[in-house]
Amino acid sequence: MTSKADEALGYEQARDELIEVVRRLEAGGTSLEESLALWERGEELAKVCRRWLEGARARLDAALAEEAQEAETKPSE
Questions:
Q1: Considering the entire predicted model, what is its pTM?
Q2: DSSP codes of every residue in the chain
Q3: Cβ contacts of residue 42 below 8 Å, gap of 6+?
């Protein structure tokens, strides 16, 4: 479950933290418990990023649909 603090993260913040989590996991040298905690944190950060990207996609789709609708209703010259 995503926390309130995670919901307040911007896309770039979540992405940067996710990059750091992946870097630490790939570097190794962590205990199993720490690796699991990092993996769980990475999953949460990925969800935050996914929500931001889905929101951006919805906004783009709405803007494109509005533009197309305006083009259809515009009188021909």
A1: 0.78
A2: ---HHHHT--HHHHHHHHHHHHHHHHH----HHHHHHHHHHHHHHHHHHHHHHHHHHHHHHHHHHHHHHHHHHSPP-
A3: 18, 21, 22, 25
pLDDT, one tens digit per residue, over 39-52 is: 999 999 999 999 99
Q: Give yes or no for a contact between 45 and 11, defined as CB atoms under 8 angstroms apart.
A: no
Q: Provide CB contacts within 8 A for 38, sequence distance 6+.
A: 21, 24, 25, 30
The rounded distance, in Å, linking the Cα atoms of 3 and 21 is 17
Could you write out the DSSP letters of every residue in 45-61? HHHHHHHHHHHHHHHHH
